[in-house]
Amino acid sequence: MKTTAKAPANIAFIKYWGKKNAKLRLPLNSSIAMNLDKIFTLTTVEFLPTLKTDQIEMVGEKIKEKEASRIEAHLDRIRKLAKIKLKARVRSKNNFPKGTGIASSASGFAALSLAGTTAAGLKLSQKKLSILARLGSGSACRSIPDGFVEWRKGDSDKTSIAHSLYSPDYWQIADIVAIVTKTEKKVPSTEGHARAESSPFLIPRVARMEGKVRAVKRALKKKDFSQLGSIIEEDGIDMHAVMMTSRPPIIYWLPKTVEIILAVLRLREEGLESYFTIDAGPTVHVICQRKNSAKIRKALTKIRGIHKISVNYPSVGARLTKNHLF
Q1: Superfamily of domain 173-312
Q2: Residue 230 and residue 212: Cα distance in Å, rounded?
């Protein structure tokens, strides 16, 4: 059965960096994220008896050998669950540049997990789908549920899961994504996670994470935007401090990244409240209240050299669609 899924990228309010189990992709800390409505991956999967090998294609992009192997390994997980041996045709399309700090592996493996299991004749619960997606890419588990999502770190394959805290319409928050380059980052996130333990800042960071998670959940419950934004911004800086002090160091920021950060700080001083956060890449996510999104977007367009600006609101998680790619 040919099946297509659409899965959103997500922006982590509280991030994870470093794993306690690389094979199972168990994180050192829990995290909280918001799924994004304008940035997503479409993936079509069909298992066919005529295929001798998996056929994997990314629309408009060249698949690297490591990427193809990672996707094939995920298809093997699905085949094992479904008790089939058929090879698959997979065609996937991002509507944003991958490898630039916009969670392309999150949306990609969430879409592959839902499309692949459905095409294989399975109907997994959201919990089991979250677990499966996590095995492909840790942050992919957060792109399965709707809206504002918590990924509980857990201590085993069965307990490290993501679940929805609030629906997309719970709070009118925006993420203005300022994409500064189309060039894929040189250090993939998987390699960056492996380097995290070499940073002297990792242990102090992890020790504070449970408190941060509780604080963000309180801010979400009370809809306290100032409190939420200050924690989001602080945690993003903390994570990049770990990256920059790893051996060898990882510096994802570009000059344009810093220029946007300074612009956000200036806007806040002028009374237009917004906060920045940055995932594993140079892209800046500007978190604001929806009522201010048009003004902040306009201010960002005055900065020369930004590749693209995308205004996003909270989104549903992974969903099936009939918009097949083949």
Answers
A1: GHMP kinase, C-terminal domain (3.30.70.890)
A2: 11
For helices 126-136 and 104-119, the axis angle rounded to 10 degrees is 120
Quick check: 178 and 309 in contact, CB under 8 A?
yes
CA-to-CA distance for 310 and 284, rounded, in angstroms?
11
Was domain 3-169 assigned CATH 3.30.420.40?
Answer: no
pTM: 0.96
Q: How confident is the model at residue 98 (pLDDT cuts 50, 70, 90)?
A: confident
Chain-centroid distance, C-alpha 150:
12
DSSP assignment letter at 25: T
H/E stretch holding 265 reads helix 255-269
Which residues in 121-223 belong to E strands, given as ranges? 148-151, 162-166, 173-179
Supply the pLDDT for residue 61: 87
Task: Show me where the domains of the chain are located.
Answer: 3-169, 173-312
